[in-house]
Amino acid sequence: MRILVVEDESTLNKTLLDGLSECGFQTDTSESYKDAEYYIGIRNYDLVLCDWMLEDGDGTDLIEVVKRKSPRTPVVILSAKDDKQSEIAALKAGADDYIKKPFDFDILVARLEARLRFGGTSVIRIDELIIDPDEEKIIYKEKEIELKGKPFEVLTHLARHSDQIVSKEQLLDAIWEEPELVTPNVIEVAINQIRQKMDKPLGISTIETVRRRGYRFCFPKKV
Questions:
Q1: CA separation for the pair 149, 168 (Å, rounded)
Q2: Cβ-count burial of 134 within 10 angstroms (0-12 exposed, 13-18 middle, 19+ buried)?
Q3: DSSP code string of 32-48
Q4: pLDDT tens digits for 139-182?
């Protein structure tokens, strides 16, 4: 899962980056509103963790930017404001959670994991298709499908962002830890495996190619 951390205090930014990376998250960081807006525009995130008071903008304004692109992506606000009114204001602005500074890192991670589960990024159910990322398992009409590794991750990412066209570059950024070291051809290989191991045997179509733009999750759609 990929998280965007938006925090303008450099030491805390690095602490969050290192800690979340150690917990197995792929993490991008930004120290400004402007850079965060850029990252949100080019990549798909499973969660955005954002400081409220940024030097060049209001962190709560990023909520609308995130939700406009991907309504199901949770946004968690970090804030030094510890009064009830501020927390209510952030939640009314669309935040999915509000964490006060200073915070215990272990509790922060537990709350982020809970928010990811609550946000629907664990088990995905669409008609008779079930995708379980935690167990790396796919079930269709009570039959388990053998699809593992990167093809499974590509399918899962597209299913999570079924309302979007996702480019090869976005898939590489979201799934590969060092996307600059691989070629976009690996996406084509993964998509082909999904179609050969899953779509053809089951007589369904899960992913459509949008010419010159990328891929879109299209299930349910009969072949």
A1: 17
A2: exposed
A3: SHHHHHHHHHH---SEE
A4: 999 899 999 999 999 999 899 888 789 999 889 888 887 888 88
